[in-house]
Amino acid sequence: xxxxxxxxxxxxxxxxxxxxxxxxxxxxxxxxxxxxxxxxxxxxxxxxxxxxxxxxxxxxxxxxxxxxxxxxxxxxxxxxxxxxxxxxxxxxxxxxxxxxxxxxxxxxxxxxxxxxxxxxxxxxxxxxxxxxxxxxxxxxxxxxxxxxxxxxxxxxxxxxxxxxxxxxxxxxxxxxxxxxxxxxxxxxxxxxxxxxxxxxxxxxxxxxxxxxxxxxxxxxxxxxxxxxxxxxxxxxxxxxxxxxxxxxxxxxxxxxxxxxxxxxxxxxxxxxxxxxxxxxxxxxxxxxxxxxxxxxxxxxxxxxxxxxxxxxxxxxxx
Length: 318
Fold this sequence. Notes:
Helix content: over 70%
Structural class: mainly alpha
Strand content: under 5%
């Protein structure tokens, strides 16, 4: 691990944490529907990325590749599954359990690319597995909870999308190609969420997906929602999406998951700060959850130290 990409990954994790907490604060204070806000933010971010790629000579190759559409579709599926998991557990526990993607990524890169974990990294993976098992026991029903099934599907999809991004020709190309790719993927994801919202509204109107039919037009017509979505899309979502693809290219899907292993804890720290400032209700801090998540972070830290010790270069290209 060379320092440039490692520092970029750390900065990206911190930026995701700040973005997540600010978004929660906005939803809490203004009462925006989360699904509508997510779709509007993705539309703003995708448009921003395409404009940055150069709208007059926009590379259209990403739209001709099946993997672009697959990544967009998988991102919709992971969003739906994660949202479903939140129905069966606290937001803190569910978010902490997403660390399972580090283990899934290790299996995925071995199956796809035959990249084996180093022997010295095994204790780190075991610590992550232990922390995930202990956190899962905090759910009602433990491993039999529906939340586990939704999370497993969500994280497998997340890893699969990252594996596709790692080898995507446009992610391996220059900056403009990557900007076009991330812009199209983000817009496809937004359209997918809109489709899911529409289908559930017709077939399962009682499902907690988007605003109910009576409020749909008012929600979509809110200038405050679109103003907030533009701000979050331009300032946070667009650069974070681009960085996610760049980091995946530089250090692989497994390295990207590893760089995000501390995200739940850093987000919790930012939530505590936001709560003390009155931006959000103070988060409920369970000592057991904190302790078990610390085990996960320690495992991730072990693996990072091993890789740093082997002086693998992560140089960020121009």
